[in-house]
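User: I want to check something. If I give you two sequences, will you return the structure for each one separately, not as a complex?

Assistant: Yes, each is folded on its own. Here is the first sequence with its structure:
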Amino acid sequence: MKDSVRKLEAYQAETPIEAVKDRYHLDHLARLSANESVAGPSPKVKAALRTALEDLDLNYYPDGQATVLRQALADLNQVPADNLVLGVGADELIQLLTRVVLTPGSNMVVPDPTFGEYGIHGDIEQVTTKKVPVNPDNGHIDFKALRDAVDDQTEMVWLANPNNPTGVFEPVAKIQAFLEDLPDDVVLVVDEAYFDFVKDANKTVAPLVARYPNLVVLRTLSKAYGLANVRVGYGIMQDPLYTAMQAVRLPYNLSNLQMAAGTAAVQDQDYLKQVVSDVWTERDKFQNFLTDNQIPFYDSQANFVWLDVGDAPKVGQQLLERGYQIKSSSSPSWVRIALGTPAENAGLQAALKEILGK
């Protein structure tokens, strides 16, 4: 066994809702720990799944190229279909990118804090992960420090935009300037899992992929589209990365049901716009609450907020006992809270005021 694998700790997924309710004798649990969509997917998704089930031949493999879903995504993003690699969530694409790009003994560079999956797969591929702290005052990435961390052994740089867990969004112009200064043999991966929630009209670097062969953009249907249980993600990239990724991707990695759900979801943009509008409303209300109560936070452009509560594990446990499950294990003092329904958000805010003595 690889030493790098032997040292890994398994990802700790959320405890099932019913188990938590039983443990704490709760009538309702607001699961606000995994940045899931409380709105759920478009109603057209379930209709598409019912039709797909009726037509499903379980004894035959699905379309290995996900042709219909691939074209729907190409139309949505205005990119060539042969620039898209589809995966079982963006997680599979993170795994495949590290497998394709990283060589043992090299390094990759990430902001800190950021999504932990990047570092996990770096460890598996036996590379060093160099962490560059974000600006402690506002959570923004220090692009100069990030560039300074790149050396002749660097093979990848990861940017989640908006960042997870901070929710902070970096303007496209800043990312492009960083990319211009990056060596051509260093791959920049911009993970746009939460970009749908950004208010800025110019919110994606996807159009830049055609100009930069070392740029990859990742997307997921788990967040704004409400398909976390279905597991569909995709990457936008050009050759030579596209051909290499297609070569290492497992054949038939998406089922007919995943493809049907994904296609129906991305084709219902009216529903997506309503979901995003509702998130904007709740996010503004939540951040106004934090400002009014002098609770430090970073300005979020995602469907969650990152705030300083002093003792994260303690506050996380106290909220859990009151029926609010949040992410409190990423920092000693900061917690990440996904936006729930209006009633859940209001209840959590009241509980937070009580716990923090506001």
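And separately, the second sequence with its own structure:
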Amino acid sequence: MWQTFPAFLFAHVLADFVFQSRAAVEAKARSGRKAFGAYVRHGAAVAIWSFVVLFPWECSEALFRAVLEGRVLEVEAVSSVWGGLCVPAGVAVFLAVVHVAIDFLKVREWFGPAGSARAFLSDQGLHLLFLAVMAANFPDLAAASIWPALGSILGFDPPAFWGMMLFLTGLIVATRAGGFFVETVLEALQQRSWRGSDAGSYEAPGKENEKPRPHTLEEANTVGKIDEGAEGNAGRAAASATESEEKPSDSLEGAGALIGHAERSMVFLFLVLSGRPDAIAFILTAKSLLRFGSRRERAETEYVIVGTLVSFAWAVAVSYGTMALLSALGVAVPLWGT
């Protein structure tokens, strides 16, 4: 199980947070052909990546020999090659079907309001639970795949290879998934502030006399392709506080989101690689001096502080979770010692 679960998790993270466009996420929230097509494409991505991480080593050897000998379509080659692909392919398709079903329930707000932190955490938690159950039922599936064999050729033993895959998975979750989680928390904070005041007198952080933009994120997995999240909104809000549309903004486009990705990746790397939580204090202090150096309105300052704390908390939680899974695989953590 501890070898198959990282493989399942890596495929899930790639399909959800890397190879899913924002347009596809928004299409799933609609109805009709566009939504159906978005679900099909996302399910295909899950199936393809799951099959890639499970591709069996024995079948790859037999396939390579059949191609060299020109026997790909012969009965013996078909039975030895294609027959061995049935189990991995079937598991990959089943993973995709259940994944799409969970996403459908989330879009229909079974787990909470669309785009909320509760919906995101419930959705991802259910995904992880299902992957763990599947890994327990197919504990040796990933061990028989082509990847451990290729890792041994490159000098990696199986625990180190799966540990490297798990490390990359944690890094993606800490950065890209963390960006969405921060956004959902800040969106909820803005909306609560708006509901608690008169609609005409509400002032969002840095956007006086404007109502907060509508919460249009219908899908928690948007994180993979959000170019400008709430962290970016916070940065742009500070720049456009009192400027008219004709005046250029003094904030770089997308800089806030980039800062958030960078800070979470640094926290993850410091903890997982070196095991130095004290280094996080240095990052937090540096950011505080840089971002809070100028005068800010109270609401705007609180907005940025909340985003920073949520971002760091997410990165720390993902880092320790990754280290726990690495320890279960038999990989010594921190990876570079203390």
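Because they were folded independently, the notes below concern the second chain alone. The chain is about 70% helix and 0% strand. Residues 198-249 have pLDDT under 50 and may be disordered.
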